[in-house]
């Protein structure tokens, strides 16, 4: 038998011996030559890691930080408002740069006949190793004409064109090197001389509210007393609610934020619309050099929070909410445009399918033009109707040719 050929004791003593796999029943020379899995009857468990042991995934934020700093950041800011409200001066004060060194000021006659134009200035800024590609989109000529009917149309068209260009690049092959020129924020300057919003202010903000983050500002607030600023802010907030204007809303603080951060967030929300001052001059006051304006009665300091809301605007725009402005542009405004664009393309494809009596799956090979959605919806509908008419005429011609061929075959 098998047991008799082995080196184990006779079968009569088998019931007194342990299992052959047990190390205690095997000779020493067998233990040394046996495979490792025969040395133990149960698997060896590794000791559980102690709480002090470090795996390393906590460095993921550092990896993202290094990659982001190496790539750099980009931000596109649009400024809109009448001429003479200090738009360029405020931007220079915000980013400590001069974007309009060679600007030519137009005369009053030239401004009357001037149409709204879009000018773009790009500057690379670096601070503590962090690079920012800043693009300022200016709108000279806005609100300067006698008749300002739909003077915001070139501005909305420009925003849509940037969306369309990004959509084309995103749908193309070279998706790695896409340049993001979408407008992330629009600072709208309200003149301090009125008693609230003018009709052109209301129409402009309503035209842009679904395309860009609108941040209203009260310009040249050093023309007003603190009491007048407070009344004008209340009036502007009331009219924004009354006319249903959607301006940029600050996100709520997280529940785990400290009390100091929550207090700053409340102050930012209560300060809107920001009353701002800009200056390209450096003046000396109390032995210190500051950006400000020198008047016979004293000095207005740009960065003094008791004089204006410039510091709060800069904090919101650069230090705390710049990434949120970009996220809303990408996840909300651009996605709405993209959905509308895809819907229009699908309708065009469906019209081709119905006109040619083809299944929808066969219309994929038909070139689908990206319709210029920067034009009004009425123009888009007209363009679709024209295409439908052309397809209908082509279908009628095909039917006539088929009937003629059938008639010739019958003869």
UniProtKB/TrEMBL annotation:
This is Septin. The gene is LOC112220238. Its main location: cytoplasm. GO terms for molecular function: GTP binding. Residues 384-411 form a coiled coil. It holds the Pfam family Septin. The record marks 193 as: Important for dimerization. Belongs to the TRAFAC class TrmE-Era-EngA-EngB-Septin-like GTPase superfamily. Septin GTPase family. One of its GO terms (cellular component) is cytoplasm. Residues 1-35 are annotated as: Disordered. Residues 71-344 form the Septin-type G domain.
């Amino acid at each position: 038998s098998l047991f008799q050929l082995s080196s184990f004791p006779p079968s009569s003593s088998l019931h007194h011996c342990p299992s052959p796999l047990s190390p205690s029943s095997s000779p020493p020379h067998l233990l040394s030559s046996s495979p490792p899995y025969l040395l133990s009857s149960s698997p060896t468990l590794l000791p559980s890691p102690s709480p002090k042991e470090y795996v390393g995934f906590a460095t993921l934020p550092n990896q993202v930080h290094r990659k982001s700093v190496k790539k750099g950041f980009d931000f596109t800011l649009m400024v809109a408002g009448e001429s003479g409200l200090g738009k360029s001066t405020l931007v220079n004060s915000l980013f400590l740069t001069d974007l309009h060194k060679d600007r030519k000021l137009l005369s009053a006659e030239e401004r009357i006949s001037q149409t709204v134009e879009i000018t773009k200035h790009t500057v690379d800024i670096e601070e503590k190793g962090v690079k920012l590609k800043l693009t300022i989109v200016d709108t000279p000529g806005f609100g300067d004409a006698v008749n300002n009917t739909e003077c915001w149309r070139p501005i909305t068209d420009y925003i849509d064109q940037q969306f369309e260009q990004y959509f084309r690049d995103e749908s193309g092959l070279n998706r790695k090197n896409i340049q993001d020129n979408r407008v992330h924020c629009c600072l709208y300057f309200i003149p301090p001389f009125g008693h609230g919003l003018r009709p052109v202010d209301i129409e402009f903000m309503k035209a842009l509210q679904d395309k860009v983050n609108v941040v209203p500002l009260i310009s040249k607030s050093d023309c007003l007393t603190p009491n007048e600023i407070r009344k004008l802010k209340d009036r502007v907030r009331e009219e924004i609610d009354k006319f249903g204007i959607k301006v940029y809303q600050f996100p709520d603080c997280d529940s785990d934020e400290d009390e100091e951060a929550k207090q700053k967030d409340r102050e930012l929300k209560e300060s809107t619309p920001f009353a701002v001052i800009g200056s390209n001059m450096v003046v000396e006051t109390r032995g210190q050099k500051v950006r400000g304006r020198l008047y016979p009665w004293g000095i207005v300091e740009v960065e003094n929070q008791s004089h204006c809301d410039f510091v709060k605007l800069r904090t919101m725009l650069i230090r705390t909410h710049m990434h949120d402005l970009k996220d809303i542009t990408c996840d909300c405004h651009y996605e709405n445009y993209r959905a509308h664009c895809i819907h229009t393309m699908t309708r065009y494809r469906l019209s081709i399918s119905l006109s040619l009596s083809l299944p929808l799956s066969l219309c994929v090979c038909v070139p689908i033009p990206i319709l210029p959605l920067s034009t009004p919806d009425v123009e888009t509908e007209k363009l679709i109707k024209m295409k439908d008419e052309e397809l209908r005429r082509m279908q009628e011609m095909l039917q006539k040719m088929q009937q003629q061929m059938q008639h010739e075959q019958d003869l």
